[in-house]
Amino acid sequence: MGTGHETRHRRLLRTIAAAILLGTVGLGVFVARRAAPPAPPSEPAAPPVAVAPPAADAALAEPIPAPEAIVAAVSGKVELLRSGNWSSVQVGQKVGETESIRALARSTADLALGPKSKLTLSEETELTLARLDGAEHRVRLDRGRVTAAYEPEGERVLRIEDRGGQTVAEAREARFSAMATEGTFVVATETGTVNLASAGASVQVDPGEQSIVRSGAAPSAAAPIPVALLLKVAAASKPSVPCEALEGTASPGAEVFVDGSPIAVAADGRFRYPVEDRSKKQFRIVTRDATGRSTEQLVRCRAPPAPPREKIDAVEIRWHE
């Protein structure tokens, strides 16, 4: 009896102790919650920050500004065609799209295409700026010879075409010359590479090579630029014979001038110039190739003999009757 009573008594004490412990813990939690300050209100989320694209991507997205063609140098007589009238140009003058510029006899001009590139007009040369924008510089070479020193600027290209726009020389980075004569278009490359296209065909003209297009046909195969410039005039070897015509041979693709006027040259370089003024005793013949080399000859001719005086065999005198 005594042992069972003690056991029940111990269980009761443990139960009371557990209840007191739970009450103490609950009271502590309640006091802690009452003492803790209220949580601050949540701040609104910050707006998203725009991230700028990388500089390289921005540069690719922005078009290259259209350049200005400016006359950088003038020697001799150089003229600009604007609003249907030719007038002398000055250094620093701007040349716009669709306008033409020409260098007359013994004259040259430099035309700057932006800060990196330029075109040099040789004498007796005329060209038109067909297009100037961020994609291309397009130039129509109406006659004569032009040298291009073209430096890369983005994806822009230089295109030099003949008068009819059927033959086109294209380059992104090169120094080359193009020459247009009656029925002939020649490209000679100094540095870089040039693509010459005509009649649905094209050739690559590498440094030290040239290619010729005749009368809108396909370009000739690129070949080394001739070492020497040829000029032979048949009349020059016969100064005692009156000049009825000047006949000779020049390098294929070269142009020939007689006293400053261009004359037709056949595909093989032969030329013939009928002399209209038989009293003229000398002629200045000049040939020039696409690289700019030139040579000349002064051809002397004997003036035609004077017509014979009519011989008088008899004189009849009648007196007034």
Keywords:
four-stranded antiparallel beta sheet; 24 strands; 2 domains; Jelly Rolls; mainly beta; Immunoglobulin-like; 321 residues
Verbal overview:
The protein has 321 residues and is mostly beta strands. The chain folds into two domains: 64-224, Sandwich (Jelly Rolls); 231-300, Outer membrane usher protein (Immunoglobulin-like, Sandwich), CATH 2.60.40.3110. 13% of the residues lie in helices and 42% in strands. It contains two helices and 24 strands. The chain has helices at residues 2-35, 55-61; strands at residues 69-75, 78-82, 85-88, 94-95, 100-103, 108-113, 117-121, 125-132, 136-150, 157-161, 167-171, 174-181, 184-192, 194-198, 201-205, 209-214, 223-224, 231-233, 245-250, 255-258, 261-263, 270-274, 282-288, 294-300. The chain has a 17-stranded mixed beta sheet that branches. A four-stranded antiparallel beta sheet has the order 21-20-23-24, with no helix packed on it. A three-stranded antiparallel beta sheet has the order 18-19-22, with no helix packed on it. It is elongated.
Strand and helix layout:
Elements: H1 2-35, H2 55-61, E1 69-75, E2 78-82, E3 85-88, E4 94-95, E5 100-103, E6 108-113, E7 117-121, E8 125-132, E9 136-150, E10 157-161, E11 167-171, E12 174-181, E13 184-192, E14 194-198, E15 201-205, E16 209-214, E17 223-224, E18 231-233, E19 245-250, E20 255-258, E21 261-263, E22 270-274, E23 282-288, E24 294-300
